[in-house]
Amino acid sequence: MTRIKKSSQGSSPFQRLFHSEEISNKWSDLSDCISADGKLSKKLKENVRRVLAYGNGCSYCQAKGIPLKPEDMKESYAIAFAEVFLLQREKTEEKFFHVLKEAFSDEEISELLAFICFTTAQQYFGALMDLQ
After folding, report:
1. CA 11 – CA 85 distance, rounded (Å)
2. CATH 1.20.1290.10 fits 15-128, yes or no
3. For residue range 77-99, what is the model confidence (pLDDT) as tens digits?
4. What is the pTM of this model?
5. Exposure on the CB side of residue 19, measured as CA atoms within 13 A
């Protein structure tokens, strides 16, 4: 049971937590955009999302599956960085960015960090609302 009554709008339990159609639509648009194939693959981002779900305590997100074994070096580095982020949220040490630069371009790092931050916001929202 969520902490608030769900709205009648939206196509998922998460979307029904928004009582503003404008916020819901823009949030969903950004979610779709940031999760799509870009500089980084949708598959890599989905595995990072799964790692974050457990660290951010979102039961709804956890229900979508456990992290999968990385298939390549980039995915492995992205997952490792997400785990470091979960441990060092306030101040991620510079040395971890140096490691990221071994596998990713600046454009890819920017996309990865934007994805991690937005996904964390989504998962915090779900966790705060007690979305199951």
Report:
1. 31
2. yes
3. 999 999 999 998 878 889 999 99
4. 0.93
5. 4
